[in-house]
Amino acid sequence: MLQGIGASQGYGIGKAVIIEDISLDYSAVKYTTAEEEKSRLNKAVEAFTAETREMAEGLKASAGEKEAEILEGHLTMLADPFMLSQMNDNIDGGAVAEAAVDTVCTMFYDMFAGVEDEMMRQRASDVKDIKDSLIRILLGVKSVDIATVPKGSILIAKDFTPSMTSQINKENVSAIVTEVGGVTSHSAILARAMGIPAALSVINVTQIVENGDMLIVDGFKGKVFTKPSDAEIAEYTGKQKAYLEEKEGLKVYFNKPTITKSGAKKKVYGNIGKAEDAQNVIQNGGEGIGLFRTEFLFMDRDREPTEEEQFEAYSTVAKAMDGKEVIIRTLDIGGDKAIDYLKIDKEENPFLGFRAIRYCLKNTELYKKQLRALLRAAYFGDIKIMLPLVTSLDEVKAAKALIDECAAELESEGLSFRMAPLGIMIETPSAALISDLLAKEVDFFSIGTNDLTGYTMAVDRGNANVSHLYDAFQPAVLRAIEMTIKNAKKAGIMVGMCGEAAADERLIPKLVEWGLDEFSVTPSSILQTRRNICECE
Ligand code: PEP
Ligand code: MG
C-alpha cells in the first residue's frame, strides 16, 4: 500500500494508465533568423491561445465556471506584454523560440515559486504549464491523449497540470494519483470539482506502478493499494457502492433549506482554514462560513502576514461567498498550534497558557493589523468577527475597545470599512458558566466543542489512557452546551456550533431541541448534517 494525501473524496477501483512526461528537448533546434524565430513564437502563442480557449470551454462544462478561470488565467498571463517582449529580446540575443520561452518562463517560475503566499505559488505551476505547452507546440509534439483513456482508468502522473486535467472525461476516469501536489493544488481543486477521487503526493508512484496494474485508490485517506487481493477488491467495491449511494441520496439536500419537521429554520455552514476553501463550502451546499481559522495564514512562514495580505484573504472569502455570512475567528495560536516567529516561550502547560485571545490582547500591534484587515474586508461582504478562547468579560471588553480604536484609525485614514458584528467562541467551561453575562456583550456565540470537551472533562485528547473521557456526549459537556444555548436564546442572540460535534448525528437532535441556530461543519459533512437536521422533529 502506498500512502499519499487524500485530496478528493471517493474510492476508485480500476487499471493504471501512466501518463508519461513527453520529451521537450529542443537542443537539436537550429536558429534561423530573428524574424523567423519571432514568427514561430507568434504562431505558437496563437495556437496556444486557441487550444486553451477550447479547453476552458470544455472545463466549464465538466467542472464549472470557476475552474475554467484557472485556464483563462493562463491566457491573461501570456497576454502580459512584458512576458512576450522578454521572449522577443531573447530571440534578438540569438535564442531559438523554444529557448526564449524556456528562459523567460523559468524566470517567472522562480519569482512565483519563491514567494510565501500560497495563491502566488500556484502561479508558478501555471507558468510551468504555459512553458511546457508552448515548447510542445513549437516542437510539434502531440500532447498525451488523456481524453480517450478507456472506462475504469486510474490516471497516474508526476503532476496534473490544469491543461491536462481539463481533458479528463470523468465518465472514464475512476481516480487520479500524482507524485506531487497537496489539497489546495489545482489538480486537487479540479478533481474535487469533477468528483473524481484523488490521492496526491504519492512518492515514486509513476515508477512503482505499471500500465495496466489493478489499483484501488482511497481518496479519503490518500491510500493507493497496488496489486490488491480479491478480498480487498470486494471490501472496497462495497465501500464504493455505499459511498456513491449515500452521495446520491444526499444530492436532494443540495439546494434545500435546512428546516426541521416542525418547521424550525436552521443554517448549515462550513469550516475553512484557507481563502480557497470557500469554494469547497459553496460546492458542498453550505449556506455560509461558520469558522474561518485564520491561524493557518500565520503558519508555515517565517514572518507574520501583513495587514494587506490578510485583507486580501478575508475580502477574497467575503466576495466568494457573495453576501452570505462569513464568521472569521481572530488568531488562535498557542496550545498545539506553534508559530516559531511569534516567539512564545515554552510553557509547562501550553493549553492553559499564553494562547489565542490572551496572546493577542498582549500583542496589540499584531492584533490590530488583523482587526483592521477584518473591518476593511467587512466592507465587501457579511463578515463577522469571532474571538477564540474567551474566559472572562474583561477579555471581550478589551477586544471591543481595540476594534473601536481600529475603526477610528480607519475613519481618519479615509479607508473604506464596515463595523463587523462581534461574537465569541464558547469553548471553555468558564465561558459557558458566564454565558448569560457574555451574551449581553456580543452579537453571537459559536460553541467550540473540540476545546470545550477537553477543558470540561480535563482531558488531553492526545493521551490514549484518558481518551475514553474525551466525548462531547458526556453529561458535563452536554450541560455546558445546553446552558450556553439557553443563555443565548434568553438574550436573543444567535448561537451556533463550529466544533466537530456539530456534525455528530447522536447530538444533532439534542442541539435542535435546545434551539441551536447554526451548525458549522467540515465542508464534506454539510449535506449529511442538513439531512440529519431535516429529519429532526
Ligand atoms: C473548537 O475548539 O471546537 C474549535 C472549533 O476550534 P479549534 O478546533 O480550532 O480549536
Ligand atoms: Mg478551539
How is the main sheet built?
Answer: 8 strands, mixed
Low-confidence stretches: none
The portion of residues forming beta strands comes to: 5-15%
Total number of strands: 17
The gyration radius over C-alpha positions equals 26 Å
Shape annotation? globular
Termini, distance in Å?
45 Å
Strand order of the largest sheet: 1-8-7-3-4-5-6-2
Give the proportion of residues in helices.
40-55%
Class by SSE composition: alpha/beta
How many helices? 21
| Cofactors, ions, other ligands | phosphoenolpyruvate, magnesium ion
Average per-residue pLDDT, rounded, comes to 91
Quick description:
The protein is α/β, with parallel strands linked by helices and 537 residues long. It is built from 21 helices and 17 strands. The two termini are 45 Å apart.
Keywords:
single chain, 537 residues, alpha/beta, 8-stranded mixed β-sheet, 8-stranded parallel β-barrel, 47% helix, 15% strand, binds phosphoenolpyruvate, binds magnesium ion
Provide structural commentary:
The chain is α/β, with parallel strands linked by helices and 537 residues long. The protein has 21 helices and 17 strands. The protein has helices at 34-62, 65-79, 81-92, 97-113, 118-139, 162-165, 186-194, 205-208, 230-250, 277-283, 295-298, 307-320, 356-362, 364-377, 393-413, 429-433, 435-438, 449-457, 475-491, 508-514, 526-534; strands at residues 2-3, 5-8, 11-18, 153-157, 173-178, 198-200, 214-218, 223-226, 258-259, 265-272, 289-293, 325-329, 382-387, 422-426, 444-447, 494-497, 518-521. An eight-stranded mixed beta sheet has the order 1-8-7-3-4-5-6-2. The protein has an eight-stranded parallel barrel with strand order 10-11-12-13-14-15-16-17, surrounded by six helices. Strand 9 and strand 10 (265-272) form a beta hairpin. Helix 4 runs antiparallel to helix 5 and helix 14 crosses helix 15. The protein is globular and about 80 Å long. The protein starts with a strand and ends with a helix. The structure holds phosphoenolpyruvate (PEP) and magnesium ion. Magnesium ion (MG) binds at residues 427, 448, 450-451. Phosphoenolpyruvate is lined by residues 291, 293, 332, 427, 448-451, 498-499.
